[in-house]
Every structure is written in C-alpha cells, then in structure tokens.
Specification:
The structure holds 2 protein chains of 2 kinds. Chain A has helices at residues 2-6, 87-100, 169-178; strands at 25-29, 35-39, 42-51, 60-66, 74-81, 104-115, 118-125, 128-135, 141-144, 148-152, 158-161. By secondary structure, chain A is an alpha+beta fold. In chain A, a hairpin with an 8-residue loop joins strand 3 and strand 4 (60-66). The radius of gyration of chain A is 20 Å and the shape is elongated. Among the domains of chain B are: 8-130, Pleckstrin-homology domain (PH domain)/Phosphotyrosine-binding domain (PTB) (PH-domain like, Roll); 155-339 and 479-501, ABC transporter type 1, transmembrane domain (ABC transporter transmembrane region fold, Up-down Bundle); 340-454. In chain B, 56% of the residues lie in helices and 15% in strands. Chain B contains 26 helices and 19 strands. In chain B, the strands form 5 sheets. Chain B has a 6-stranded mixed sheet, sandwiched between helices. Chain B has a 4-stranded antiparallel sheet with strand order 1-2-3-4, with helices on both faces. In chain B, helix 5 (171-203) runs antiparallel to helix 14 (457-499). The chains are: A alpha+beta, B alpha+beta. At the A-B interface, helix 1, helix 2, strand 8 and helix 3 of A face strand 6, strand 7, helix 11, helix 14 and helix 23 of B. The structure holds adenosine-5'-triphosphate (ATP) and magnesium ion. Magnesium ion (MG) is lined by residues 559-560, 601, 681 of chain B.
Chain lengths: 181, 819
C-alpha cells in the first residue's frame, strides 16, 4: 500500500496489465538505443524488451519497457508470444532480447578440473568454446529451473546447464563429483 | 584500468584522425559486440568525443562516435549478464558499447567520469582507476575489493590432511587406541593356532612329528615333552586349550573391544564438539553477505549432520577401518608363514574383486549424489513449508504441500533404492567370489593333506579359518569407499565453512572507539550487492553529532543499504565511511556495533522471554532499566497487560505478538543498548499513528544527544528530523531541512503533497475523530481532555499539509487554535 503512494503519480490512473495486440504493433530499428515501437498510434522510443519467464518460457511473455532507471521505468505492455508478431518485428524483438540476456548455454563439458579451490571448465557453449574458472563455492553454482544449474565464473559471467539429466553419464559424473551440493 | 595503452592499429587510426595521444582522457578495452558475441572493442574518451572502435575486415573503424559537445551525461544500463554504456545526446540515450559483467566496474566509472567531465570539465583518475582491477597480486584472480583475501592463495590442504591435523591434540589417545588395536589383532591371530593344536596334537597326532605345543607349556601340565601323550593327558591338554586358551583369548578380546569402543567414543564426541564449536564461531563471524548467499537450512545441516558424520569417521577408523586394513596384512603374513604356495591361491579372487569394485563405484557414485541431492531438496522443502505453515493454511494449500512432499520423498526413496539395491546385489556377489577363493583353498589344500605334501589337517583348518578373517575385512574394505565418499563430502562441506574468511576482518592496527560522539560521514560511497550492479552510487553526506536525520525514498532506493553500510555489514566498494572522523575500516567491528543501535525493518525476536529479548544487547541490565526502555518504546503498557508480563515467553520469531508489538520491543531493545547512533529502519511502520506519536515523544527524549537516523515512508514519522535525505536509485537527490526541501519543490515536496492528499480524504481515523468530536460536544467536561489530545494529533498530522497547500483547509487552522 505505502509503496504505491510514493510512486510517481500517473495521470491516466491504473490500467492493469496490458497485453498488446500483435497486429497493432509496429517496431522500427533505432539508431541510438532500444527500438522504436508504435502501438495504437502512439510511438515510444528507446524501448527495451525483457522476459517474464526467461528460464521456462524464453519465447513468451515479453514485456516492452521504457526508461532505464528504477524510477522512470514503465511498461508499454506485454506480448504474449513472439511468434505471433510479423517476421520483421520478431527479428527486432529477438535482437532486443539478446541484448538483455548475456549468457552462455553449455552444450558440452569438455573438461572439468579442480585446483586450489577453483574449478576449471572447458566447454562448448552457445558463444563458442570457452575456458573459464569458477570459485569452488556453493553460491557460485546454483539451481536453475528444476534440473539445471547456473554457473557464475570469476568474471561474473553466467553459464547455464539447462538440464543436468541431459548430460552424458561421464559429464554428469564429473560434474557432480565437484558440485556435490 | 581506465587508461590502457591502445594496440598499434587503433593508435594509428587515432593519429590518422588527428587525435593526439595527449587528448585521450580515458581508454579501455571491451570484450563483446552489441549482439553479445565475443570480439575486441575499444572505448576511447577524448576531450572532444566518445568513440567506440572495432576492427572489421582488417580495418579499424569507429562503430560509434559522439561529440562531447552533444553529450549531456552518461550512464550504465545494466542488463542480465552484461550492460550498456550509454550517453545522452539531444535528450535521447544512445548506446556506445556493450560490455560483459567482467568489465562492468570499469564502465560504471567511465560513465561517472564522463558525467562529471560534462559538469566540471575535469577528469580525475584515482590510483584505483590506474590499477588493473582488484586482482590478487600473486595469482591474478579477480577479487571483490582490494581488501578481499584471495581464496586461491589461501593454502588449502587436502581434506584428509586437515582432518588428521584436527585430531592432533588427541594424539595420546590415538596412540593408545592404536596400541590396543594392534594388541587386539594379535589376539585375533591366536584362536586358529589353538585349533591347529587341537587337530594336530590331540585328535590326529602323527607320532613322527613333534608336538606343536611348546615344551614349557607341556611341562606346566605335567606332560613330559618328547613322549607320546596318554589319552588322559590329551584330555588335560584339551581342557587347557579350550578353557584357558580359547576362552581366555576371547575374554581378553572382549575387554579390549570395550576399552577401544569407549575410547573412540570419547575422542569422537570431543572432536565433534570441537568442530561444532569452530563451525558455529565461524558462522557467527561471517559477514551478512555470506548469509545472503547460503540457505540457513543447509548451514544447519552442516553444523548438525555433517559434524556427526565426522564422529562416524573417528569411530570407524579406530574400530572398522584400521582393523580392516591391518588385519589382512597380518593374516596374510601368517598364511604365508604356514604355507607360501597355498597363500598364492588365496589371492586369485583379489583382481576380480578390485576390478568389479572399481566399476561398481563408478556406477554408484552418481546415484549416491542423486540420493544426497533429493534428500537435501526434501529437507529444504520441509524447512520452508514448516516455517511458513501459516501461509499454507491461509491459502488452504495443505493438500498440495502434502503431494509436493510425497513427490520429493518419493525421489528420496527411488534414489535410495537404486543405491541400496546396487549395494545389496554387489556385496553378496563379492562374498561369493571370496567364497570361491575359499573353495579353491579347500581343494588345493585338501590335496596337499591327502597327498602328504607337507600340510597337516590342523594347518589346513587353521588356514581356512584365517581365510575368513582375511576375506571378511577385505570385502568390508570395499565398503569403506562407500562411507569414505559420504564422509569426504561431509568433511568438505564443513571445511568450506571453516575456510571462509570473514570478509570484514579487523586489522591488527584497528582502533578502539569507546565513546563515540556520533559524527557520521559518507565520502563518495559506491556499493552493490553484486559487483556489477551498484545500489548505492557515489553517496556523500555529513551528519553532525546529535543530529536527527530522516531518510525517505522510493522502495528499493537503497535506504536500508545505506544503514547496512554504516553498520559495516557490508564493505563499501569505493569511497569510505567515517565515524567520528575515523574510517570504518580502521575501527574494530565490535566498537562500531557497540555504538550503533539498530531497529530493523523486519523486527526479529528470539525465542525466549520478553525481558530477555529487550535485554539482548545488555544481558546484565536490571529489570528497571528494561522497563524504562520498554516504557520509552511504548511497549510497557501492552506488556503489563500480558498475563506473564516481562516473563512472557515468545515463540519462534516472536510469534504470539502483533507486528506493531514486535516493533516496539525491538525499539526498546535498541534504546536499552544506549548507543551513540540510533538507527530506526521503518521502526514504527506497523504501529498505529497514536502509539507512533507516543513513541516519537519518548524518542525525542531518548534520542537527545544521540545521532539518529530514521527511515520512513510515512513522512509524519520524520517531523522531528533536523534534516531529511531523499534517496533515489542509490543516490542522494535532496538533503536539507523540511522547510528547505519544501521550498525547493522537488521530490520531497511531491511526496509530501501526495501523502497529505491521501490523508485529507476521509480515513477511518478521521471518521473516528469526527464521531468523538460530536460525542464530546454533547458530553461533560471529563471527555474534553481526550478530545484535546485527539485534535492535537490531528493538527500534528496536518503540519505537512499546511506547508504545502496553505490555502487548502480551514479545519487544520481551527485545530491549531484549539491546541
Ligand atoms: N541482500 C541483497 N542482495 C542483493 N540485492 C539486494 C539485497 N538487499 C537489497 N537488495 C537490492 O538493493 C536495492 C536497495 O535495497 P534497500 O533494501 O536498500 O531498499 P530500501 O530503500 O530500504 O527499500 P524499502 O523502502 O522497500 O525498505 C533493491 O533494489 C534491492 O532489490
Ligand atoms: Mg528498507
């Protein structure tokens, strides 16, 4: 309750969650930052996109937002499914989503060794072959979705194993030998 | 580093553009493209422009370039795993570069420096900016702050070595136990030798062979050595061997077992006691940050469960493990002495067993992990559901929680089954293989006996009974890997906690500050819970001793973080905080905390009596002071209404009290602590306005001479403040007295306006008030006093309204007159 009183008052009042009609959206590339989005005749600039369910639903529930800092941020509306957009719009939204999420999906763990409290990974990832070191600590490898793990390396970059069960038996064994929590 | 040397290619491009090197203010490399692919990029800031350079088809080009004259300011736009450096050009934000988290802190600084350059025309590089990031000087690992200790360089011994070192204080016990264990093994070797005597001397003695029984023993029994025994003499011998020899050995052995068992329990429990003590002390030393990252349930498991399994290690090693390793060695020697060739046959099953054990563990290990994993998931769920049992009931989700639990419990069952079924199949098979070994020995040895190849029946029986003692421990040695795995991971989990260096360590030169005036200074403080996402940005503030400061700001703007830093729960990333002119880093942690009384946003009470909770910071406080503090916190009266008064026992987290009552107890706790600096983080948010006013009045007395920092959303709470700080997105955007800020018509002014608008609408309080006023009008004098109080309160609440909208209501002026 109190929180809402400190929010910036909006003239239009409370509208609830807005779902955008995919046919009503036109998206243009912006030269500066974000996208330019026209919805119902109104054009927004510097629009960015984020996912409501980045882990479980990477293609659905995209929120289009303006304003970067905590105070200014506002939602234009949500897109239920990226695939319902026109192909050109899809490309732009997907590109904007790629700008929001920077992570490496691990396809294959090529090697994993421990030395002095560090785990040294070598893995095939969505961003090519990567070698990285991870502090061998509980908080550096955590659960991601139900069966996945997220790994944060010494540079704070994020690596994801979407499903441990899909690792080969050797990979699994090697992984759980070190990540025993 | 903010002034890196450009590679020749890029430097050449700059000179082609007639940009002299001396013009370069900032220069750093960058690692990813806008699309998030890895590639080399450079960001160069000169007096005239901000440029992002890349190489394409072997040619350096400016991918982005913005004229400094056009730029208004710069910022970081943090995303997930990466971020963007943006500059504001003609009112629009434009992307300059994208960087991965590894570079975030550099770009954060670049953005701040560009912005400052636009304001002051200067770029100042500090020593830290010139340095390569906070890296460990020895190994180059990225560290959080310059004071962070490099975990790679802390000498980490192997688990086993550490464990032995931990047992060092107990070496006399260990030695004693070891001697006893050896004696026990020696005793174990005796019975088969006695049975050999039974066979070869008594039952089927070959006259051509001398007796096995030593001469002195025979003499003891009045048997003349060198002659054949008479049947009666044989019976005597039988008696001695069975009742003195065999029974005696068994008695001794049992005695030994009892002593060894008791010893190992003594040592084992001592060690686990020590370990729990060490763990708990370490856990209490660890910083708040550690607890942000670790689940309490799992830490509990470490203190209770994992230390227990170390106890298992001690008793196992003295009783099972050690014996099982030593026994086969000694028995092997004994076998070899009796018959070397036959001993070789004994080893036939060994390779099979070793190989199959290896494969077995390769298979079982992952399943073992799955078992552990499902078990800890079940525990975690249990922990959270039981603590949130009220929510479960309120939403009528018992059924779902039951089925969720059953699901997790089923996982435990399934994984446990897999492990145990595998084990349950494997060990009988190993037993069978060993059994085959026994059969081989019977056959080969039997032929030796039959064919008279230097083996007596007695030797063969002794041999085979040794065999049982040989294979038995061997097959349980394969078990050892099982508990060793469990134990090692337990030990690892324990050592992980013990190895965590408390992030904020007092240096040897730390200063003591016994009596503190309460002067507080923040100097360009920047801090983020994650290194790449600052929550407090470049905050500078000076708070005079005895001042009362109010902090307001949007939820999530960093108010609590501000006070967290002041208490040094976290270490600042940049800048410094001073109390009485001394940097927090140079002060003893205890002294900082002794001078700060804190009332948390979520009041936390321990299980115990109300008195104990109030006196938590000063356990020796006498009851009168406890009551005085409670009175000041407006808690005394409700406590007195309770049947058990100050002796009332509170449940977990203070259950049994209302939210506002809990807050008042935690205020009393802070007041009793009598700190120089009092911090109230939303301390009265759950208290009704009337009690709040009373608390305020009491606080006004109690806080005299103290520096007080009060955070509140309800602005009326802050009316006594000398100055008010307005925070937004980690920055202080306004600071000054109430009147100054109102005059400024900035954020604070807007907040005040919104709140008075809200309260000027008919609220329950107001309706109640009106009703009372009407009642008062018709009733006698006695109620007048009450009305006066109410209207006074009304006027107080309205002071905000007056200043913002002086024209607005007459009623407030009216009430002002009445009061
Ligand atoms: N332990 C933490 N780990 C990571 N981020 C945190 C942690 N605590 C707070 N934050 C984040 O830091 C920011 C500032 O939080 P803070 O608690 O200081 O806000 P606040 O101003 O006290 O808000 P409120 O008025 O709601 O209490 C928030 O965005 C929050 O999400
Ligand atoms: Mg807070």
């Amino acid at each position: 309750m109190e929180e809402s009183t400190t929010q910036k008052p909006t003239e239009s009042g409370y509208k609830g969650l807005v779902f955008l009609d995919p046919k009503d959206i036109t998206i243009h590339e912006s030269e500066l930052a974000g996208m330019n989005v026209t919805v119902g005749g109104e054009t927004f600039e510097e629009v960015r996109a984020s996912l409501a369910l980045p882990i479980t639903e990477p293609d659905r529930y995209v929120s289009l937002r303006i304003g970067a800092s905590k105070g200014e941020e506002q939602e234009i509306g949500m897109i239920r499914d990226v695939n319902e957009l026109s192909p050109e719009n899809q490309v732009l939204v997907r590109r904007e989503l790629r700008k929001r999420y920077f992570l490496h999906v691990i396809y294959k763990i090529l090697s994993l060794k421990e030395k002095f409290g560090f785990l040294y990974f070598e893995a095939e990832t969505s961003k090519g072959l990567r070698k990285f070191a991870v502090r061998w600590e509980y908080n550096r490898v955590q659960e991601y979705s139900e069966f996945g793990r997220i790994i944060i390396d010494t540079d704070d970059n994020r690596y994801i194993i979407p499903d441990l069960r899909k690792l080969s038996p050797e990979e699994y064994k090697n992984f759980t030998r070190y990540i025993y929590w | 580093m903010l002034r890196k040397a450009l590679p020749p290619k890029y430097a050449a491009w700059l000179s082609e553009q007639n940009i002299p090197e001396s013009d370069i203010l900032l220069c750093t490399d960058n690692d990813i493209t806008f699309e998030g692919e890895y590639a080399e990029r450079w960001v160069v800031v000169t007096r005239d422009a901000v440029i992002m350079l890349r190489e394409r088809d072997g040619q350096v080009q400016a991918a982005r370039s913005f004229k400094m004259a056009d730029i208004e300011s710069a910022r970081i736009d943090p995303r997930v795993g990466s971020g963007f450096l943006q500059v504001k050009v003609h009112g629009h934000w434009a992307e300059v570069a994208r960087f991965s988290n590894a570079r975030a802190i550099w770009f954060e600084r670049i953005a701040a420096k560009i912005t400052r350059f636009k304001e002051t025309g200067e770029i100042i590089l500090t020593e830290e900016d010139e340095k390569e990031q906070n890296r460990c000087p020895t190994c180059g690992l990225l560290l959080r702050s310059s004071t962070d200790i490099c975990p790679r360089c802390i000498n980490k011994n192997r688990v086993f070595g550490r464990l032995l070192r931990m047992m060092q204080p107990y070496w006399p016990w260990a030695l004693g136990t070891l001697l006893l264990v050896f004696t026990g093994i020696g005793l174990d070797l005796v019975p088969p030798q006695l049975s050999r005597i039974l066979m070869d001397d008594i039952f089927v003695h070959d006259p051509a062979r001398p007796y096995l029984m030593p001469e002195w023993a025979l003499r003891l029994m009045n048997i003349t050595p060198g002659t054949q025994m008479t049947p009666s003499e044989k019976v005597t011998l039988l008696f001695f061997v069975v009742f003195l020899g065999m029974a005696g050995v068994q008695l001794l052995r049992i005695g030994l077992n009892i002593v060894i068992g008791r010893l190992s329990v003594t040592v084992g429990t001592k060690i686990t006691y020590d370990l729990r003590h060490k763990l708990f002390s370490r856990l209490s030393e660890l910083s708040v940050r550690y607890y942000d990252r670790h689940q309490v349930g799992i830490l509990m498991q470490r203190v209770t469960g994992d230390t227990e399994s170390l106890h298992g290690f001690v008793s196992q090693s003295t009783q099972g493990f050690l014996v099982n390793i030593l026994l086969p060695v000694f028995i092997g020697a004994a076998l070899f002495k009796m018959n070397p060739t036959l001993t070789l046959y004994v080893f036939i099953p060994a390779p099979f067993v070793i190989i199959s054990t290896y494969y077995f563990w390769e298979f079982v290990y992952p399943n073992y992990y799955k078992y552990w994993d499902s078990h800890s998931k079940m525990n975690a769920m249990l922990n959270s559901v039981l603590s949130g049992v009220r929510v479960v009931k309120a939403f009528a989700q018992e059924e779902r929680e039951i089925s969720r639990f059953n699901h997790l419990s089923g996982n435990v069952q399934a994984s446990r089954q897999r492990v145990d079924k595998a084990t349950g199949t494997f060990y009988p098979i190993v037993g069978f293989i060993f059994g085959l070994g026994g059969l081989i020995v019977w056959y080969v040895g039997g032929r030796y006996v039959l064919e008279g190849k230097g083996m007596t029946l007695g030797t063969l029986t002794a041999f085979t009974s040794y065999l049982g003692m040989f294979y038995g421990p061997l097959s349980s040695l394969t078990y050892i890997s099982s508990w060793l795995t469990g134990f090692m991971t337990s030990a690892q989990r324990v050592f992980e906690v013990l190895d965590t260096e408390p992030e904020l360590q007092d240096t040897d030169s730390a200063l003591h500050l016994h009596i503190c005036r309460g002067e507080i200074e923040f100097k360009n403080v920047t801090f983020g819970y994650d290194r790449y996402n600052p929550v407090i940005r470049d905050v500078t503030a000076h708070i005079k001793p005895g001042e009362m400061i109010g902090i307001v700001g949007r939820s999530g703007s960093g108010k609590t973080t501000f006070v967290n830093l002041l208490c040094r729960f976290y270490e600042v990333d940049q800048g410094e905080i001073l109390i009485d002119g001394i940097s927090l880093r140079e002060l003893h942690k205890d002294d900082i905390r002794r001078n700060i009384g804190l009332v948390l946003q979520e009041p936390f009470l321990f299980r115990g009596t109300i008195r104990e909770n109030i006196a938590y910071g000063r356990p020796d406080a006498d009851i009168e002071n406890v009551m005085k503090a409670a009175k000041a916190a407006n808690a005394h009266d409700f406590i007195m209404r309770l049947a058990d008064g100050y002796d009332t026992k509170l449940g977990e987290y203070g259950s049994g009290l209302s939210g506002g009552e809990r807050q008042r107890i935690s205020i009393a706790r802070a007041l009793l602590y009598d700190p120089a600096i009092l911090i109230l983080d939303e301390a009265t948010s759950s208290v009704d306005t009337e009690s709040e006013k009373q608390i305020q009045e009491a606080l006004a007395v109690a806080t005299k001479g103290r520096t007080t920092i009060a955070i509140a959303h309800r602005l009326s709470t802050l009316r006594n403040s000398n100055r008010i700080i307005v925070m937004d997105d980690g920055r202080i955007i306004e600071m000054g007295t109430h009147d100054e800020l109102i005059k400024k018509e900035g954020t604070y002014y807007r907040l005040v306006k919104i709140q008075t608008q809200l309260t000027s609408e008919p609220t329950v309080d107001r309706l109640e008030l009106e009703k009372k006023e009407q009642e008062a009008a018709v009733s006698d004098e006695s109620s007048e006093k009450e009305t006066e109080e109410e209207t006074e309160k009304d006027s107080e609440e309205k002071t905000d309204a007056e200043s913002t909208e002086p024209s607005e209501d007459e009623s407030s002026k009216d009430s002002e007159q009445t009061s």
